[in-house]
Specification:
The chain is of the alpha/beta class and 316 residues long. It has a single domain, classed as Aldolase class I (TIM Barrel, Alpha-Beta Barrel), CATH 3.20.20. Helix content is 37%, strand content 14%. It has eleven helices and twelve strands. The chain has an eight-stranded mixed beta sheet, with helices on both faces. α4 packs parallel to α5 and α6 packs parallel to α8.
């Protein structure tokens, strides 16, 4: 249980000491997924290769890749495949980043058109080396997709643009339908899990998007199983609602390799259901809270539900 702070009376949560030699908990049955087998999966993979595109589905070792690619749903990752950050949960390579591909926006647009996507998620690595953090590249990609597939709705999952003045505004001006930026974890764990980021800066990004353009849906998500307490998850919900965020996702953290942060616990489906109901009660238009939930998992159907929820709220 959290211990009260002697000076303020506020709850504090001592950082759990993680023993790298401690056996990891066995993965429960509800997290087991089938290996990809369909022809559509191979077609999607080949299209990504032909257009020299990177996907977060592969780079982040997403457990849902088989299901999504079988439906020809792919999350595009722009700005290269090498990140300038080294988050403890992420499987994306860290190091000296790639040169920007000037043809990437158009190639993403071609892929979206060929896949016939009704909704596309465009994400990226962090590019602290670029003056604008890659914001202009995001804007060009949004414009290219709009030109090639006017009816496709667009969701961006952006980095935090830390110390990049004007970057957020550049992306918002391109008017994506959904602006997603993940908090990833609770603030107490940022120093060990997301050391290059700042929790309240990330919150401020989401709040700023709503002030710039209230018509853009905002979205954010966290992983559980990194050492957080349930009451900390509820506090993140309150923080996101204070930033007027529309949609929250919560999923189970899975350790990509032994070098990454260990899994502290496997959260039960019942607890995920509790998070879902609690988030709805707190006022989110949409919640997605299951063990296999990821930012772009079922993003197409979730967007349709999100739009319907807004219409119902306005009508009510």
């Amino acid at each position: 249980m959290p211990q009260p702070n002697a000076k303020t009376g506020a709850a504090r949560h001592p950082e759990k000491r993680r023993n790298p030699d401690r056996p990891q908990p066995a993965r429960p049955d509800w997290l087991r997924v089938r290996a990809p087998q369909s022809g559509a999966f191979e077609e999607t993979r080949q299209l990504m290769r032909d257009l020299d595109l990177v996907t977060v589905c592969e780079e982040a070792a997403c457990p849902n890749i088989g299901e999504c690619w079988a439906k020809k749903h792919s999350t595009m990752m722009i700005l290269g495949s090498v990140c300038t950050r080294a988050c403890a949960f992420c499987n994306v390579a860290t190091g000296r980043p790639d040169l920007l591909d000037p043809h990437e926006p158009e190639n993403v647009a071609v892929a979206v058109a060929r896949l016939g996507l009704a909704h596309v998620v465009i994400t990226s690595v962090d590019r602290d080396d670029l003056d604008d953090g890659g914001a202009a590249h995001f804007a060009r990609t949004i414009a290219a997709v709009r030109a090639a597939s006017p009816v496709t709705t667009i969701e961006v999952l952006t980095p935090d643009f830390l110390r990049k003045p004007g970057a957020l505004e550049r992306v918002a001006e391109a008017r994506p339908d959904v602006f997603n930026h993940n908090l990833e974890t609770v603030p107490r764990l940022y120093p060990s899990v997301r050391p290059g980021a700042r929790y309240f800066h990330s919150l401020s990004i989401l709040a700023a998007v709503k002030k710039l353009d209230a018509s853009i849906f905002t979205k954010s998500g966290i992983m559980v199983g990194l050492g957080e307490e349930d009451e900390e998850v509820l506090q993140v919900m309150d923080d996101l609602r204070s930033a007027d965020v529309d949609f929250m996702t919560i999923g189970q953290y899975l350790q990509p390799t032994p070098k990454h942060a260990p899994v502290d616990r496997f959260v039960t489906p019942d607890q995920f259901s509790h998070y879902d109901k609690t988030g709805q009660a707190k006022g989110f238009l949409m919640m997605a809270s299951t063990p296999l939930t990821r930012s772009s998992y079922h993003a197409d159907s979730d967007f349709a539900a999100l739009r319907s929820a807004r219409q119902a709220a306005l009508a009510g």
